[in-house]
Amino acid sequence: MPNTVQGTLRFLRVLYGVLLFSMALDVIVAERIAPRNQVTLSSLFPWYLAVVGVVMVGVAVGTRIHLVRPALEWLRSNSNDAASLRRWTTGAIISAVMFESVVLLGFALRFMSGTRVQSFPFYAVGIVLMLVFWPQEP
Fold first, then answer.
1. Nearest to 83 by CA among 96, 97, 95, 67
2. 109: buried, middle or exposed (CB in 10 Å: 19+, 13-18, 0-12)?
3. Can you count the helices (H) and strands (E) in the chain?
4. CB-neighbour burial class of residue 62 (10 A; exposed 0-12, middle 13-18, buried 19+)
5. For the chain, what percent of residues have pLDDT higher than 70?
6. How far apart are CA 55 and CA 14, in angstroms?
7. What is the DSSP letter of 28?
8. What would the mean pLDDT of 92-107 be, rounded to a whole number?
């Protein structure tokens, strides 16, 4: 694990880049090879997944508020604080995984015979949030 602000920033940007690439692959795979209309889904099922997605986004944003933001504020004044670097890294990883999970909900929905219109919001929310919360220097 990197023990400097620059090393941590580089690590997190590479991780976010890999996960963003993974999200793009998830969308491509789901749209190219997912089975089409083999099973009729309950009309409520996409809404259930949407509730799960909202909870995941809430966890990610809450993690950023309670772990990442305080760690970044502390690092602005004391860039050598190892505990703050760990909190920043942990919070950023948790939020990135939650954003990836939202995209995976759309991926799963598509493979369960959901439509493109039903899956697209999951893809869009996960990818946009990943870009909005791209790691920045403290």
1. 67
2. buried
3. 5, 0
4. middle
5. 96
6. 26
7. H
8. 97
pLDDT at 1 over 70: no
Q: 112-132 burial, b if ≥16 CB within 10 A, otherwise e?
A: bbbeeebbebbbebbbebbee
Evaluate if residue 40 carries a pLDDT over 80: no
Tokens 């004044």 belong to 77
The predicted pLDDT at position 41 comes to 74
Distance in angstroms (rounded) separating the CA atoms of residues 65 and 61: 6
Of the candidates 82, 87, 97, the one whose C-alpha atom is nearest the C-alpha of residue 129 is 97
The amino acid present at 66, given as its one-letter code, is: H
Which helix (H) or strand (E) segment holds residue 77: the answer is helix 69-77
Tell me phi and psi for residue 113, to 5 degrees: 75, 25
Q: Do 105 and 53 touch, CB atoms closer than 8 A?
A: yes
Domain ranges of the chain: 5-31+43-132
